[in-house]
């Protein structure tokens, strides 16, 4: 008989795979509903694509550059669970029209983590039980529950429900390894839509460009350039700039050595800015799964027969706020579920 709701006194054990914004949002909200939630993260710390790389003297945001907020619940959630972990980025933002001239971005408040993007997920993770350095490899049905194990086969516990917030390729791999081929097939198209991105952080002693703090370039290799040191809370000596390669260029050069990629993107930056001096340091990062484009955007996926849900940016617009929206949508659906006695 199904006559209780999910937020009844029944306490569910929920495993969340991934501690990016989607995973932490889902975990915090489910915990708030009284459930017993464990977040598993394959990396050393939380954050996912809200990422910062350590560089001499500080850090540079090599993943998401900023986020906007259209959902009225988003900023209050971040304030409640993250405090002052973020703030507005008072920059000048522009894009280059096909003729090369610069146009301003639309007026909108753009937010960043302070003093780095990962400050947001670090703060949120204090409100969740996160087990780091644990890559989930398999789910095995055990009565009504799921036995969850890592890629070494180590058992990690039994859970009533599993929420997967990994990017589509990693989510599909986990589902297929668990024999859940029908569920994995839902990800065939999304996997194709996730684009890679080469990222470079370069340090300059003198400002290489003074017209914008963030800009989208009209260049075959270079998509985005930002003065990371202009973001709030960064106290760099000199300036760290971040370059993101275009998805097409990254796909063509995905296996190229990192130092060659850094030189190519620096050359592209010189083409765009005409600034020839420096840099004196560069670090590089390759994102195999960076941004998703197009496709169906159902918000989240819930498979009631299996008690498995999927959330993440790729289901809701491919952006930071989309990750939050997706997790909220999935939790709302779970909360409305009838529960078997
Ligand atoms: C280069 C780049 C630039 C971007 N710029 C912007 C921007 O300016 N503005 C914007 O709004 N968005 C931007 N984005 C997108 C933004 O970063 C994402 O939309 C958002 O961070 C996604 O959050 P998520 O929680 O859905 O996924 P993720 O952050 O990817 O989190 C998924 C987590 O799952 C973990 N994981 C995967 N598989 C497993 C497993 N088997 N077991 C355990 N853990 C696992 C991963 O390690 C990761 O931590 C950018 C992304 C990149 C890469």
TrEMBL record:
Domain Amine oxidase stretches: 117-329
Q: By what name is this protein known? A: FAD-dependent oxidoreductase
PANTHER family for this protein = FAD/NAD(P)-BINDING OXIDOREDUCTASE FAMILY PROTEIN (PTHR16128), FAD_NAD(P)-BINDING OXIDOREDUCTASE FAMILY PROTEIN (PTHR16128:SF5)
Q: Which residues cross the membrane?
A: none
Coiled-coil region: none
One Pfam family, short name please?
Answer: NAD_binding_8
Per the UniProt entry, the signal peptide is: none
Molecular function terms in GO for this entry? Answer: oxidoreductase activity
Q: Which InterPro entries match?
A: Amino_oxidase, FAD/NAD-bd_sf
Q: Which domain of life is it from?
A: Bacteria
